[in-house]
Design goal:
- The chain is mainly α.
- It has one domain: 434 Repressor (Amino-terminal Domain).
- Helix 2 crosses helix 4 and helix 5 packs across helix 6.
- The chain is globular.
- The relative contact order is 0.15.
Length: 96
């Protein structure tokens, strides 16, 4: 019989960056999201509601402490006015 995996523990173990390179990527994404939110004059709470993401998660994304999934990032990008996650990454690339 296969042992059931504890989903909560699995998510917690992989939710943050594992090395400096990962942290740099996540930090750049988080800073871009925060800048865009600020330019729109919107609150963290607004972004959380619009992207169906908790405020705590949004703050961890800003700090580069959360390994954001593609679907969540797509929701956040759309809330910020991007067409989709790819549009968000194109602009991030152009800023660097």
């Amino acid at each position: 019989m296969e042992k059931k995996r504890n989903r909560y523990v699995d998510e917690k173990q992989r939710s943050g960056p594992h090395d400096k390179a990962e942290f740099g990527i996540l930090k750049a994404i988080g800073e871009k999201i925060n800048r865009d939110r600020y330019k729109l004059g919107k609150s963290v709470e607004w972004l959380g509601i619009e992207s169906e993401t908790s405020r705590a998660t949004i703050r961890r994304i800003f700090d580069g402490k959360y390994n954001i999934g593609v679907i969540t990032l797509d929701k956040v990008a759309k809330a910020l006015g991007y067409r989709d996650v790819m549009d968000f990454f194109r602009e991030l690339k152009n800023e660097r």
